[in-house]
Amino acid sequence: MTSSARPFLNRRLAEFGTTIFAEMSALALSTGSINLGQGFPDTDGPEQVREAAVRALRDGRGNQYPPGPGVPELRTAIAEHQRRRYGLGCNPDTEVLVTAGATEAIAAALLALLEPGDEVIALEPYYDSYAACIAMAGGVRVPVTLRPHHDGGASFRLDLDELRDAVTERTRLLLINTPHNPTGTVLTREELAAIAELAVERDLLVVTDEVYEHLVFDDAEHVPLATFPGMRERTVTISSAGKTFSFTGWKVGWVTAAPGLVTAVRSAKQFLTYVSSGPFQYAVAEALALPDTYFEALRAELRAKRDLLATGLAEAGFAVFRPAGTYFVTTDIRPLGESDGLAFCRALPERAGVVAIPNTVFYDHRESGAPFVRFAFCKRTEVLEEAVRRLKSLAG
Ligand code: PMP
Ligand code: GLN
């Protein structure tokens, strides 16, 4: 503090300390625990994509500032991905913007689109950067809570009436995330259609975080919100190479949207990083062109890991919400005689040598999330097996 006793950190950010991911990864390191907290794979993505990055670097492609909107090869590959996967026509010159991960895309979108006082509806539990970026933009977050349901398998579901009721005259945008971190919920076509109808009816913008678009299991289907009637002109779609190609450290993300929206988001983005990840942009362009078999194999591998961890957690006494997508299984710790997820996660490294994430930090209504704890399954099979062995010691 200075002599005026005014805190260095401004009021907008005062409630945001260190992110839970940094706290828990540091705890994993200092205690030598298995880290099922922060969502990153413990093996790297395809060799040929890594080699493409090396080649770009050696050939001097991207070693100097790339173009502001991203290198043309990557913008073309992103547009082609949207067309091929989802039938979304997308002009690589005017409707695509490459960002420093999805994180910067979220920040730039909110900083560009919000006036101070604008309300933003976000699904709760929400990814932590949403709250911080809404705050930095001077917006007001309005959470709509996904609630546990136990019909036909436990999952967290959106109450569409609650969503509808949350819209006011001051609502500017809906911030949607599907497949959803941390619950693993994948919004259904019907739910997305209802969200789209609401957005059109109330003339709202939509920012949709689809970074787990390729990580959906069983009969779940990822449908981009931008494909619904009336949505193209009001939707900012965000994705990233981190999860799809298992290179979370490369931080190559992107925005696709109508030209006016991309221009607005770019206005903010150019003053955040301006550009990033030069050589990696070329490598991700090649990755996006991988054949369908790559994406199918990734899904199959993660589905098997989900099953291993979900089954193991159930055997260890947790109540398990079986995820339809993402890297994460959310559990309820009450069957273990526990109710405070934050205390449970802080003690877990000592008790069992495992690190997990307390979902309560992703809630405004902290008590709604208190008993829920998230485990990541994007880890090697033997690591998951060892984690399960350790967690089984909790009950006994
Ligand atoms: N959105 C969600 C829902 C996430 O889980 C994450 C973290 N991986 C991000 C955005 C950030 O993505 P990136 O690493 O590409 O910035
Ligand atoms: N998205 C990752 C997760 O949810 C973490 C990313 C980060 O550390 N900010 O675990």
TrEMBL record:
Residues 34-391 form the Aminotransferase class I/classII large domain. It comes from the Bacteria. Coiled coil: none annotated. Its cofactor is pyridoxal 5'-phosphate. Keywords: Aminotransferase, Pyridoxal phosphate, Transferase. Pfam families: Aminotran_1_2. InterPro entries: Aminotransferase_I/II_large, Kynurenine-oxoglutarate_AT, PyrdxlP-dep_Trfase, PyrdxlP-dep_Trfase_major, PyrdxlP-dep_Trfase_small. The keyword Transferase applies. One of its GO terms (molecular function) is transaminase activity. This is Pyridoxal phosphate-dependent aminotransferase.
